[in-house]
Amino acid sequence: MNFDEIRYEAYKANMALKSNGLVIATFGNASAADHNRRVFAIKPSGVPYEELSPENMVIVDFDGKVIEGELRPSSDTLTHAVLYTEWEGIGGVVHTHSTYATAWAQSQKDVPILGTTHADHLVVDIPCAPVMSDEMIAGDYERMTGYQITQSLAERNLDPKDVEMILVSNHAPFTWGATVSKAVYNSIICEEISKMAFITRQINPDAQKLKEGLINKHYERKHGPNSYYGQD
Amino acid sequence: MNFDEIRYEAYKANMALKSNGLVIATFGNASAADHNRRVFAIKPSGVPYEELSPENMVIVDFDGKVIEGELRPSSDTLTHAVLYTEWEGIGGVVHTHSTYATAWAQSQKDVPILGTTHADHLVVDIPCAPVMSDEMIAGDYERMTGYQITQSLAERNLDPKDVEMILVSNHAPFTWGATVSKAVYNSIICEEISKMAFITRQINPDAQKLKEGLINKHYERKHGPNSYYGQD
Amino acid sequence: MNFDEIRYEAYKANMALKSNGLVIATFGNASAADHNRRVFAIKPSGVPYEELSPENMVIVDFDGKVIEGELRPSSDTLTHAVLYTEWEGIGGVVHTHSTYATAWAQSQKDVPILGTTHADHLVVDIPCAPVMSDEMIAGDYERMTGYQITQSLAERNLDPKDVEMILVSNHAPFTWGATVSKAVYNSIICEEISKMAFITRQINPDAQKLKEGLINKHYERKHGPNSYYGQD
Amino acid sequence: MNFDEIRYEAYKANMALKSNGLVIATFGNASAADHNRRVFAIKPSGVPYEELSPENMVIVDFDGKVIEGELRPSSDTLTHAVLYTEWEGIGGVVHTHSTYATAWAQSQKDVPILGTTHADHLVVDIPCAPVMSDEMIAGDYERMTGYQITQSLAERNLDPKDVEMILVSNHAPFTWGATVSKAVYNSIICEEISKMAFITRQINPDAQKLKEGLINKHYERKHGPNSYYGQD
User: Which of B24, B185, D51, D114 has the greatest number of CB atoms lying within 10 Å of its CB?
Assistant: First the structure.
C-alpha cells in the first residue's frame, strides 16, 4: 500500500501554482487527499518550488500527524486537515497569496459578483471570512483557520460543493475541489475574478451586481442537470 | 469537398488567443466562416488549449447544427451563428473574457475614444450593449446574445464593417472581421484600448474625448480611399 | 556607398521595441539617421515585427522622399524627418504607443517629476505637447506633428539634448537620442517613469514633486562634467 | 587569499534582480560582504546585466575604496559601505527601483501592514525614510543616503535584523540580510507587499492595519524560538 498517486497529484498541483504565477518564493501550498485512507499529500514547508519532487511531498493523516516523509509538512497543514475532515467530497485544497485575491482579503470585503466570468463559477460573491478572534489566533491557529473557513460557509448557508473558494480576512484565499487539479483551477479563477472586480469598481464605483436571471443562466450552462458546457 | 481550410484558420485563431494572453483556462472561442457553404469551424467546448488541433475544430452550419466533428461545439456557438447570418461580409468571430475589456463590460460603460490608438481602429466609443432582458436570457440565451449585439449596433447606426468590436454588459467582448485573423487582431486591440482608457481616466477623470479632426485624420490614415498606412 | 549600417541599426531598434514590450501588432517605429548624407533608415509601414529584416528597412531623405527600398516607409516618416531636420545632434527617433506613457498623453498632462528614477534621466516633467490645431491636423499631419514637438520644446526653453522624450496630447510618446539605441532606451524609461508616476499619484494624490537639490544631484551623477555613473 | 566567493555571490544576486523583474536597463545593484576582511563585492556601474560576470564584480573596502577590479563600482557603493560599517550582522545589500516599492517611496508614505503576507516578514510598516536635507544631498550624497537609512531605523527603535527593508523618500527601496541571497529575497517581498498594499487601499481606502494578535502569530511562525516554518 503506497501513496504514489496522491504524492504525484500534490506535486503537479504545487508546480502548477508556480507556472500560473499564483505564488512567489515559497508561498502557497496544495494538497491531494485520499478519503478512504484518511490521508493527504502536501508540500513540505519552506522548500523552493525548484526543489519539489513527488518524493518529497509529505503524507499526513486527517489529524495532521505525519505518516510518511522526511520533511516537515507545510505550516498550513492543519488548515487543510480540517477542511478534509469537515467536508467529505473534497479531494484537494490549495492556499496561495495571489496578488489580487489577497488584496481583497486585506480589504476585508467579499468580491462582488459583477459579471458572467464570476457566475460561470459561483453564484454568490466570493465570501470573505471575518477576522479571527484573539482566542482563535492565540490557540491552535492553523486548525482554527480551517474552522473559520468551514463556519463562515455554514453561516452563509453555502455548500462547499457549490462555493469552492473563500478569502480569509487579512490573510489570503483558500480554494478546494473534487480533485486538487480542480482546486488549482479555482485558484486561477479566484485571482482573475478578483482582478476584474478591482478594475471594474475603479472604472465605475457604482457598478451593480449581476442580475439574478443572468447569474442562474451562466451557472446552469456549466453545472447541474441541464449543463451544456464541456464534453460530458 | 472538405473543411480543412476553415478548420485550420479557426485552430490558428484559437491558439493566438492563448499566446496573446487574452484567455485563461478554457475561456474564449474563435470561429472561421465559409459564407458560400454557410458553415463555420469553431472551438470545441471546454477543451484546454493544449489539446486543440485543426482536426478537433467543429463544423457547424449557420443555424448552429453540427455538420462534422466528434466534439460538442463551443457553448457560444449560436452567438457566432447569428453574427454570420445577420452580417454578410464577416469571415471570423472571436469571444474572450480578456481582463480590461471585461471590466468595462462589467462597468456597463462604453470605452470612450480618448486617443489616436483608438481612432486608428474605430471612430466611435467601443459600444457596450445593454444588459439583456429577462426574456432574452431565459429563452434561447446564446442566440439572443447574438441579436443583442446586432441590434445594439443597428440602434446606434453603426456598420459592422466599421465597428468590429462590442462589449456585452456584465459579460465580455466580442469582435469580428473579414477574416478570423482580423477578428483576433481586433480582440488584441480591444483589450489594449480598454486598458489605456482605464489608466487614462484614473490619471484624469475629466480626460476629454478625442476631437473630431483628429478622429477622422487617424481613421483615414488606415481606412478608405486615401489611406496611406501599410503596404497596399 | 551603401546604407547597411543605419539599416541594421534601425532594424535592431525596431526589434528591441517588440522584445521590451513597448509595442503590440504593428504599432511603433524606430529610425536611425546619417546626418552627413541627410538620410535615415525607418521601419516599413504596417509590416509585422516577425517579418522585419535589415534589408526591408526603408531609406528616406530628410524631406521624407524614399531613396532606397521596395516598401512604403512608416506612416510617421515625416515626423521623424522634421526632428532630424530641426535638431542636428539627433541620431535616432522612436515612436511607440506604450501603455502608460500613452495614457498620460491621453490625459493631456505632463508626467510630474516625482523621484530620482525620473531625475536620473531628465530634470523637468516629461512634457505633454498640446493638442494640435485643426489647421495642423487637416494639412500635412505627420510633418505638423514633428513641428508640434519641436515647437513645444522650444516654447518651454528645453534643449532636445537634455530632454529626450515628449508626449503628444491624445496621441503617444516620441523619444530620441544621439543614437537610435539611446532613443529605444529612452522609450523604455519613459514608459517606466509614466507607470511609476501613475501609481504614485494613485497612492497619494498630493505627492509632491522632487525638490531642486535632489533633482540636480541625481542628474549630475549621470550627466555633465562631474558625472560618476557608468564606466567613462 | 582571494575574493572569488563574494564575487560569485554578488554576481548571482545581481542576475537574480534581473530574472525576478525587479530592475530594467542598468538600474539596481547588489553586494555581498566579508565582514572579517571588511570588504564587499559589488556590481560595476552602468554595465548591462547581460555583460555581468563573477569576474567583473568590483571588490571595495568598507570605506568605499576599490581593492580589486578593473571597472568603476556602482555609484551607490558608499551607501552599501555605510550599512556594512554600521551593522555588523549584514552579509548583503540590495538596491532596486522596483515599480511599486518606488511608487510608495515617491509617495513619501510607509507601506502599511495590511495582512499576513507582510507580517510573515516584518511586524511593522515598511518604513519610508524622510526626504534628505539639502546639506546631506549637497555633500557626500551616497554616504549620507546610508546614514539616512541607519538613522531612520534607529529613530524608530528598529533593529536591522528584524526589519530588513526600507524606502528612501523620492528615491527607492533598499534591502539587506544575513546573506545577499536573503537581501534579494527581501527585495522580491518588498515589491510584492508594496503592490498588494496599493491594490488594497484602492479597493478600500479605509482598510485597517492587521491587528496585534495576528501580526505576532504570523511573525512567530517564521522567526524566533518557537518558529515552525521551513525545515530547520
Answer: D114
